[in-house]
Amino acid sequence: MTLRAFRYLETTAPVVHTCWRCGRPILYGLAEGIPARVDITPISSAVEAAYTAAGRATYTLRRSGLIHRDQSRRSDPSLASPVLAAHQCPGRPEQLSLMSAPADQLQIDFTGRTV
Ligand SMILES: [Zn+2]
Q1: Residue 107 belongs to a domain
Q2: Which end of the chain is more exposed for a tag (fewer CB within 10 A), N or C?
Q3: Does a structural domain hold residue 68?
Q4: How far, in Å, from the CA of 33 to the mean position of ligand 1?
């Protein structure tokens, strides 16, 4: 058994993982001490602007690790690419109503499913 010493604000080289929830490949690493799970597909600056406006974190990928992009780093040309977005699983599950619809609104399609 090996013990690793805790390093304050450690950044680790990212490794490929599979998201335990949606099964998609992601990169995982510590970015200045904070665990980062990012999509593997680089995004454009326009997409990054939309994601950051929505509160989604973005990172610059370097061999040494993921660099969290704050406002000053987003304007730094040396950190311009590749930019990866924090992973979000696609297709959030929808909570279905436990109450049945009124009988006059129920429709049955040819497969027998209620639509
Ligand atoms: Zn996922």
Answers
A1: no
A2: N
A3: yes
A4: 21
